[in-house]
């Protein structure tokens, strides 16, 4: 049975973009790209100098490998020639950017608690002090459990769908 989202995808994307704009982010990481809809909106933010797009694009649940390969190809074509974008077909916790080098990271990858915990722990080290971490699907139990355990100061946006926290 699918879980009802507290808001639609457009509202979720707008909340993430608004948070990124408020932070005046220059170096941004997006985890979990799917078809690149949020990526396009993030790249329209004038302050962004570099956007890393990270996704395994591998089959899961009812998404076939064929579909994920098409999505990857779509994203590659969408951002071809844009030197601000680096597309990484990889597990998010294998991407080794320098610690404290990122202004903003948004997580919408694997929604199981252990995976969300790994992403939060890994990417918190990559955020600069004062940098922002956001994520989608707080309404899902695995996401909420990981976020509440590792970011107890988190705040919510988009009717409770989006969580965010600042690195102290």
Write a brief caption for the model.
With 168 residues, this protein is of the alpha/beta class.
Per DSSP, the total helix count is: 5
Q: Which fold name corresponds to the CATH topology?
A: Rossmann fold
Helicity range: 25-40%
Question: How would you describe the shape?
Answer: globular
Please describe the topology of this protein.
Blueprint: H1 9-22, E1 27-31, H2 37-43, E2 50-55, H3 65-78, E3 85-89, E4 102-107, H4 113-126, E5 127-135, H5 141-150, E6 155-157, E7 162-166
Parallel strand pairs: 1-2, 1-4, 2-3, 4-5
Antiparallel strand pairs: 5-7, 6-7
Helix pairs in contact: 1-2, 4-5
Describe this structure in words.
This protein has a seven-stranded mixed sheet, with helices on both faces. The radius of gyration is 15 Å and the shape is globular. Strand 4, helix 4 and strand 5 form a beta-alpha-beta unit. It contains five helices and seven strands; from the N terminus they run H-E-H-E-H-E-E-H-E-H-E-E. The longest helix is centred in the first third of the chain and has 14 residues. The protein is α/β, with parallel strands linked by helices and 168 residues long. The mean pLDDT is 96.
């Amino acid at each position: 049975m699918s879980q009802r989202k507290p808001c639609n995808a457009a509202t979720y994307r707008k909340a993430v973009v608004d948070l990124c704009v408020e932070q005046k982010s220059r170096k941004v990481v997006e985890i979990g790209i799917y078809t690149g809809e949020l990526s396009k909106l993030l790249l329209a933010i004038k302050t962004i100098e570099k956007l890393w797009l990270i996704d395994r694009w591998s089959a899961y649940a009812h998404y076939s490998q064929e579909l994920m390969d098409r999505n990857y190809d779509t994203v590659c074509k969408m951002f071809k020639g844009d030197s601000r974008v680096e597309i990484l077909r990889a597990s998010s916790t294998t991407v080794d950017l320098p610690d404290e080098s990122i202004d903003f990271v948004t997580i919408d990858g694997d929604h199981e608690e252990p995976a969300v915990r790994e992403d939060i722990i890994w990417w918190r080290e990559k955020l600069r002090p004062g940098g922002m971490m956001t994520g989608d699907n707080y309404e899902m139990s695995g996401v909420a459990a990981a976020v509440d355990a590792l970011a107890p100061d988190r705040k919510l946006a988009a009717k409770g769908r989006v969580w965010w926290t600042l690195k102290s």
